[in-house]
Amino acid sequence: MSAAQGFLLFLVLLGGVATMLRLVSRTTATVPYPVLLALGGILIGLVPGLTLPPIGSELILLVFVPGLVFEASLGLDLAEVQRRLAPIGLLATLGVFLTVLAIGAMAHYGLGFAWASGMLLGAIVAATDPIAVVNLLRQLKGPPGLAAILEGESLFNDGTGVAVFAAVLGTILTGQPTVGDAVLRFFFVVAVGTTIGTGAGALGVLLVRRVREAELEIMVTLVVAYGAYLAADLVGASGVVAVVVAGIAFAGYGNRTGRLQQTQLLGFWNLLAFVLNAILFLLVGVALPTHRLLSVGGLVIGAYLIMFAARAVPVYGLLGVSDLRGREIPWRWRHLIFWGGLRGALSVARALYVTGRPGVDPRVPVVAYGIVVLSLLVQGGLLLPVARLLRLSSASAPA
Question: 10-389 architecture in CATH?
Fold first, then answer.
């Protein structure tokens, strides 16, 4: 069997498993589809003798992330996001910095990691993942304001995550502290990413206004989503921020004109997101370094508990500052925001990126991968029961 045939067989296998798991998810009201996909991927990865194609960080970042983030941006409730801009901004910026510090300190003192390794672990898993969060929130069907905060945080925190990750990794590789570089890089990746996204979104909207063929509209949005990500990535800015801003431009245009409601364009993006999500979450499970994880199982569990505890710092600290009386952000919302800080594909991509790099503790990417899987299985798997316990979900069955 040639390499191309093997890859096609792998895709067919993933598609078949994803289809079966989708049917299973419709019969269970407690385990969300993305969690089933991750479990299915883990089981595929455990099949003896099965040769799997290598999965790198670029595959995740360039193939899956732009399409999924753009589709999520199209579905944003812009009015609610604007209303909740202060808490979203705090969680997406200062919240990420505080989470990195909290994880780094607890990993150093509690698990024996060197300071640099603890901070790198924190930088990999500090930012919540838009793909995991948005996918589960759509099944939750909770209050729009709560959804806006969780979605907004996960979509906008990538700029901070990229800046801190690059600064910490630079410190490890060069031996020079780069705190100032982290601040400068944050402003660069966000400002340039926003500029590229604004330009791409404006150009895309201008083109869509001039066409009436659904095929051309779809092509324009595809070029905008992947082109904005690639352009930002090539200059070292945040591709996710660029895609989010471009997607918001289209969402705003759709809200003003009503042209994007019930159209083939939205149908295409919904279908594409479903396919990409299915393959991506399976890949996350398939790429799980199971044998290496077993050797550091206790460390993974300890690190996951640290990450989970560190989530309390921005949620109960920063949201408490932004809403002292709990009127705009009720305590029930805060509890679910705390629980719903899922990690996913972006953390996996960063873990894969540092794997094998000189100076990087080899346990860090393995532990980070374990944190992502536990986050999906534990927090993701129990998100709906927790939401129902807090009386925040109107979903009676999986979507």
Answer: Up-down Bundle (1.20)
